[in-house]
Automatic annotation (TrEMBL):
Residues 40-59 bind DNA. This is Transcriptional regulator, TetR family. Keywords: DNA-binding. Pfam families: TetR_C_7, TetR_N. InterPro entries: Homeodomain-like_sf (IPR009057), HTH-type_TetR-like_transc_reg (IPR050109), HTH_TetR (IPR001647), TetR_C_Proteobacteria (IPR039536). One of its GO terms (molecular function) is DNA-binding transcription factor activity. The lineage of its organism: Bacteria, Pseudomonadati, Pseudomonadota, Alphaproteobacteria, Rhodobacterales. The keyword DNA damage does not apply.
């Protein structure tokens, strides 16, 4: 390959990356606002620029664009590195802090949009669904279980079934919020609502597990 051809190839690649990023970002916003099914390629092009040819060249079509958006959201979720609260905090304070952080993350509009897509696809993307589960609820349950085990061993809490507690607590934190967002009953859950529900869940949990 001569230098002229190499330069042309490099220029095309350099142009394609920003265009690809712009299309993915525009599609991501549109999917959150309108849903995957109701978003057309023309909607994405109207915001990001480019053409249908760009989308087909870069993604192979709408399905490929959807996959690129889902992958971007999964990567962003995996990168979330909220500093865990000080493990020396009193159990109630620690549980409230992690409960609010976890619930806020699971109610993020991007996550809800991906969940809607997984439901609408009828299980067509099990690998992506499994990845979201592992970097979201499963990771949180593992961390919570380790903390509960320490609290139990050191006599601060009485939690004979660590696995059950680590599974049930996140469900109590989320309450019906995520289902309400998925159904479209509520578009946004306020920070006040999240914290209020987490506090109730923690206090209820501690009634059963506090050492007397």
């Amino acid at each position: 390959m001569n230098q002229t051809v190499q330069k042309q190839t490099s220029d095309r690649q350099g142009t394609a990356a920003p265009r690809r990023d712009a299309l993915v970002a525009a599609a991501r916003r549109a999917f959150v606002l309108h849903g995957v099914e109701r978003t057309s390629l023309d909607d994405v092009i109207a915001e990001a620029g480019g053409s249908r040819r760009n989308i087909y060249n870069l993604f192979g079509g709408k399905d490929g664009l959807v996959q690129a958006v889902v992958e971007t959201i999964l990567n962003d979720t995996a990168k979330i590195a909220e500093a865990p609260p000080n493990p020396d905090l009193p159990p109630r304070d620690w549980l409230i802090a992690v409960g609010v952080a976890f619930t806020r993350r699971m109610l993020d509009p991007d996550i809800v949009a991906v969940l809607r897509h997984f439901i609408a696809s009828g299980g067509a993307t099990p690998e992506a669904a499994e990845r979201l589960w592992q970097i979201g609820p499963a990771q949180f349950q593992r961390s919570l279980g380790k903390w509960l085990e320490v609290q139990h061993k050191e006599g601060r809490l009485h939690v004979p079934d660590i696995e059950a507690a680590a599974t049930l607590l996140p469900t109590m934190f989320r309450a019906n919020f995520q289902v309400e967002m998925l159904m479209g009953r509520k578009a946004v859950i306020t920070e006040e609502d999240i914290r209020s529900n987490v506090v109730r869940a923690v206090d209820f949990f501690l009634l059963a597990t506090s050492v007397r």
